[in-house]
Amino acid sequence: MKDLSDENYKITSTHGTITCPVCNNMLEMRWHQDSIPYFGDVMEISSVCVCGFKYADTLILGQHDPLRHSFKVCSEGHMCTRVIRSTSGTMRIPEWGVDIEPGPASEGYISNVEGVLDRIESVVNMAHKWAETPDELEKANCLLKAIDDARGGKSAFTLVIEDPLGNSAIVGNEVRVERLSPDYAERLNTGMFIIKK
């Protein structure tokens, strides 16, 4: 058995079989190591079963200094600013009271500010449909209006990404980058199990 902690050992691609959790048929699991800009080395895992079950994940293999990226979004032009959110990144919009913390099913993605607003809007729309009280309905309506105003450059907000593993970023000239203290980084969710030596 190869030592996976050995830096000279890298998996390029391979496959194996597992039992489908839905229908118990055997299905092929594939994994492939790659290098992606902004994310670094990643392991891409995928599997598809004849019953329709699908599984795909991307694991980030590297770790960097814990960082906070802050960006004041105050114009339509800022909507195109690149946003990289890893599975360990916590995203915040303090003015709106929005905190998106990573969990076990978190997805990493590369998008832009407008794409982030689209994702938030789809969640708020779902919350709007499920609202059970007038207060919940009003909060959802206020947030949807704030998103719409921000998209049109009518109101400013601050987009913040904090990542204890340093794999998330906002890329732009006006972005403020700060190193997080070890104590603060330790309190952030990573969305994954971290094994410490």
Question: Which terms summarize this structure?
Answer:
disordered C terminus; four-stranded antiparallel sheet; 197 residues; 12 strands; N-terminal domain of TfIIb; alpha+beta; Jelly Rolls; disordered N terminus; 36% strand; 3 helices
How large a portion of the residues is in β-strands, by DSSP E? 35-45%
| Tertiary shape | globular
Q: What's the end-to-end separation, in Å?
A: 20 Å
Largest sheet: 5 strands, antiparallel
Q: In DSSP terms, counting alpha (H) and pi (I) runs of 4 or more, how many helices?
A: 3
From the 3D structure, determine the CATH topology of the largest domain: Jelly Rolls
Q: Total domains, how many?
A: 2
Low-confidence stretches: 1-11, 193-197
How would you describe this structure to a colleague?
The protein is of the alpha+beta class and 197 residues long. It has two domains: 48 residues, ZPR1, zinc finger domain (N-terminal domain of TfIIb); 121 residues, Jelly Rolls (Sandwich). Helices cover 21% and strands 36% of the residues. It contains three helices and twelve strands. It has a five-stranded antiparallel beta sheet, with no helix packed on it. α1 runs antiparallel to α2. The radius of gyration is 20 Å and the shape is globular. The two termini are 20 Å apart. The N terminus and C terminus are likely disordered.
Secondary-structure map:
Elements: E1 13-19, E2 26-36, E3 40-48, E4 54-60, E5 67-73, E6 82-85, E7 90-93, E8 98-100, E9 109-112, H1 113-130, H2 134-151, E10 157-163, E11 169-171, E12 176-179, H3 182-187
Antiparallel strand pairs: 1-2, 2-3, 3-4, 5-10, 5-12, 6-9, 6-11, 7-8, 7-10
Helix pairs in contact: 1-2
